[in-house]
C-alpha cells in the first residue's frame, strides 16, 4: 500500500483471531457471530467513516470472524450455510457499517461464483483455495464499462482493459475478472491473484457514501490466467462447457447479487433506526412551544408516530427479504442436490421476488435514513454524531441501477405475466 493511501491497521482487531478461533456450527450461531462483528464495528463507525481509510483492518476482522467462509463447503472448513443465512449476516454487519456489510456481500458472491458459472471441479478447487487460505475476494466486473478484452496465448487467457468501478479490490487477495474473447461474443470469468503488477488500482473512490468499500477504478494490463480457471469452459476444446443443466442456472448470478444489495440497504436502514432511537432517548429534547408541552421527547406524539411507522415498514421489508432469500436458496438447493435444471419461469419468478425487495428496500431505506433527523432534532446533524452516514451510504448504492426499471419490470410481470429477460442487472 502506497504511503499516499492511508489504511486502517489490522492489529487493532488482533484479539478477535483467538476469540473467534472456532467457527459457528448452526444458522443461529452464525448470525450471533455476525451481530458480534456488528457490535465491534459500531463502536467507532462514524469516526472510521470520517477518516476514510482503506479498510484493511475491517477486512481482517471479517476474516477473524469466519464470516468470509460462511457459504463455503464444510469439508474445507467452510460454514456450509445457504444464501438465506448469508443475506441475514450481511444485514447484521451493515447495521453498524454499511461499507463493511457491502464488502462482505460482494465477497460472498465472488467467492462462490464458481458454484454458478463454473464446473463442479472448478467450484471445488476454488473453495479449497479460498477457504484454506482465508482469502478475501473482490471483483472488477462493472457491466456499464466496456468489457475487458481477452486474447489467447496457448494455455492462457490474457486480460486487458479498465473498469471505472470495482469493489473491494484494493483490500482483496483474489479478484474476479470478466471479459470477452477478442473477435467473439464469448464472456469468461476467472479469479486471479490481486497483488500483481498488471492490476493497478486508481485509489480514486472519494464519494459521499460507502466510503470504506474501495470502489474506485482499476486498470488491467496483461493479466494472465490459465484456461483451467476459465469458469465454465472446457479446457480441451476451449469452448463453453456443453451441459444442458447449465442453460438457466448461471443466470441466477444476477438475482443473487441484486438481493445482496437489498440486504445491505435494509441493514443500513435498520442500523439507522437503532442509532437514532438511542439518540432520541438520551439527547433529543421535547419541543417547548407546542401548547401541550411534554417532559420528554419520548412523550411527543409526532416522535412516537414516526418511529412506529418506520419500524412497521422495516419489519415488512425484512419479512419480504427473508421470503426472497428462502426462494432463491431453494433454487440453489434444487439444482445442486437434485441436478435438475431450472426453468426460465422459475428463474423469472425468483427474479421478481428479488426485484420486489429492491423496490421496497430502496424506498423504505431512503425514507427512514432521511426521516430520522425529524425525530432526533437539529443537534443530531453534528458531524460528531455521524447520523448522516446511513443516508449517504444508501443513497450512493441505490443509484447502482435505476430502481424505476425494477418497478417497470414488476409492472410487466403482474399485468402481462412476462418474466424478465436475464441481463447484467436482472
Automatic annotation (TrEMBL):
Keywords: Flavoprotein, Oxidoreductase. GO terms for molecular function: 3-methylbutanoyl-CoA dehydrogenase activity; flavin adenine dinucleotide binding. GO terms for biological process: L-leucine catabolic process. Residues 259-400 form the Acyl-CoA dehydrogenase C-terminal domain. Residues 37-126 form the Acyl-CoA dehydrogenase/oxidase N-terminal domain. InterPro entries: Acyl-CoA_DH_C (IPR013107), Acyl-CoA_Oxase/DH_mid-dom_sf (IPR046373), AcylCo_DH-like_C (IPR036250), AcylCoA_DH/ox_N (IPR013786), AcylCoA_DH/ox_N_sf (IPR037069), AcylCoA_DH/oxidase_NM_dom_sf (IPR009100). Coiled coil: none annotated. It holds the Pfam family Acyl-CoA_dh_N. This is Acyl-CoA dehydrogenase N-terminal. It comes from Penicillium bovifimosum.
